[in-house]
Design a protein that fits this description.
By secondary structure, this protein is of the alpha+beta class. Among the domains are: 1-35; 44-145, Immunoglobulin-like. It is 49% helix and 26% strand. Strands 3, 4, 6, 7 and 8 form a five-stranded antiparallel sheet that branches. A three-stranded antiparallel sheet has the order 1-2-5, with no helix packed on it. The longest helix is centred in the first third of the chain and has 39 residues, at 2-40.
Length: 243
């Protein structure tokens, strides 16, 4: 009888110990599943937003790092005086990933502008209807699209040479005309002035007067006298040689 009671007591202890072990294992499994489930559950902290530039265009990018891949709807609003001034584009749906899934909204944002980014999730037991906090504030420097309106250095430098080149051309063309007009004036004056007579110019140069005829006559007489003297001398020389 004593041995039977001992065996029954051992069996009950073993059973209670087994139940305790099973309870601890079940609790551990439930805790593990709960932790993993909460880790994979979508929450507002999985979403982030930033304002960037795509070349000269501004964009607002919202990234979803929800590893569970739960669908979420993203809506962006421009804020003004504490209220919504306008909605940026249309709402977009995104399924997150551990690496992060981005969605972009084209927006020509201005420096220091404020945007409200709203996230909505409606998936069974996961319900999110919140804004990303704090609100998104853009950079103090806008995208470089505004610089396109100002002329580039090459364009601004182009008109300068053409203007400077045209100025000498005009001055050059004006100079010959002035010189021609100045040279033409004396020519006209000389053409209009009366030309002096031939006799007057000779008198002015030689100083001759009306005695020119007398001098010519005397010279002719001397020539005749000289010729007679030569002739007489030759004849006398011939007579002497004959005797």
């Amino acid at each position: 009888m004593h041995s039977v009671r001992t065996n029954v007591s051992i069996s009950r202890r073993s059973a209670r110990r087994s139940v305790r072990i099973l309870g601890v294992a079940a609790a551990s499994a439930a805790l593990t599943l709960g932790v993993s489930g909460s880790a994979l559950a979508c929450n507002i902290s999985d979403f982030s937003a930033e304002a960037t530039c795509d070349g000269a265009n501004g964009v607002i990018t919202v990234t979803d790092t929800d590893a569970s891949g739960t669908s979420a709807t993203i809506t962006v609003f421009l804020e003004s005086n504490g209220g919504d001034a306008k909605q940026v584009g249309t709402a977009q749906t995104v399924k997150g990933s551990k690496a992060g899934t981005p969605v972009t909204f084209s927006e020509d944002w201005q420096p220091n502008a404020v945007y409200r980014v709203h996230v909505k999730v409606d998936s069974g037991r996961i319900q999110i209807d919140k804004d990303i906090t704090p609100n998104l504030t853009t950079s103090s420097t806008a995208c470089k699209g505004e610089e396109s309106s100002s002329p580039s250095p090459s364009e601004s430098a182009t008109p300068a040479p053409s203007e400077s080149a045209s100025t000498p051309a005009e001055s050059d063309s004006a100079t010959p005309s002035a010189s021609e007009s100045s040279s033409t004036a004396p020519a006209g004056a000389s053409d209009n002035a009366p030309s002096p007579a031939v006799g007057d110019s000779n008198l002015a140069e030689t100083g001759a007067n009306s005695n020119t005829g007398l001098i010519a006559g005397v010279a002719g007489a001397l020539v005749v006298v000289g010729g007679g003297a030569v002739w007489f001398g030759m004849r006398r020389r011939g007579a002497n040689s004959g005797s």
